[in-house]
Amino acid sequence: MLRLRNGRLACEEVPLDAIAEAVGTPAYVYSSASVRSQFARLDQALSGVPHRIHYSLKANGNSALLRLIRSLGGGADVVSGGELYRALHGGFAPEDIVFGGVGKSARELVEAVEAGVRLVNVESEAELRLLDGIAGERRRRMPVGLRLNPEITVDNPHAYIRTGGKGHKFGIPWDEGVAAARLAASLPWIELAGLDMHVGSQLAELDAYQRGLERIVSLMEAIRGEGIQSLRYLDIGGGLAVPYEHERPPDLRAYGRIVREAARRTGLEVLVEPGRFLVAEAGTLLTRVLYRKRSGGREIAVTDAGMTELLRPSHYQAYHHIDPVRPRQRAAVRIDVVGPVCESGDFLALDREMPDIEAGDLLAVRTAGAYGYSMASNYNARPRAAEVLVDGDRYAVTTEREEYADLIRLERHALDWRTA
Question: Which one from 331, 342, 381, 410 is the annotated catalytic residue?
């Protein structure tokens, strides 16, 4: 939640330039108020529906954000053993965690079983059999959801965030759903507890949810027709859009009506797995302009943040609004805002019309709370940025800026040679 206060941008009540002065740049700044607001809006949209909001850690696993979401009554959705560790470290009880992911290793399934998570969403018959064996060795019956691929074509900004189309790697093929349910019901250490879908990300139009839920409901009816009566959960995934440029936000009232009808027809508890929707607009990346230059008729601003901090512009051709933290009356220019990494694909914006900026200016890259720090890297041996949480008129560093020593902390310098 950014606003102008006394001629400078602030996150809630804290001026961004004061944060930059204290912790340096690049830095991620998150608004507690924004997360609370988004959680409440989604919760309200689902009022009257037995439901649970499980935050998707892959969007941003910052431990302070996890504790905030847990305090609001949220659960967690994880897709790796590392995310399970983060969720538990963030205070989520095992029964508040859903474990998904297309390629869970045997080790990760062991960790899920031993933790006692609420649900493991499996994505193949082979995974079902592997999980049954692991659970049997530990004499613990595991609740399982079947992630089905609804095989729906969706209209969203980029092919890489479409996950529910025919031929995608995610989920059990639609026409194998009933057979997978029969197998799950036959395995001694598996309890078939839910059906799961995720049609994609950044969905402003709700047709995909409508069609996906219609398919899931019809499949549930076919499974119950097989005499399988153990289903308790309808996991509808995440994917609700947030506006980055001029996108229209999703109609949450219409979304609630669609989900409410599916819940009525199935009688199941609904699990939703928002990630981006809860945290994207809460986050701002602070970066400082290092140099201004011209090349081939193009105006260029080189900043101290780039693809190592925010990969989305380079990887997804994603748009993020960029504003000077201290706006001044300057003529607009068309400019490339680029990072310091030794790659031509390292940029935050290309040919962007914005107020002219100079070396030393502090910039706020908006809507950067999702898939920013979580996709950051140490490429070019760049230490990762600091993370800061704002709550009203106070702020706290939640992740310290990495030091050079962190870059080699896990490397062994005296090698322990072995032979096979």
Answer: 342
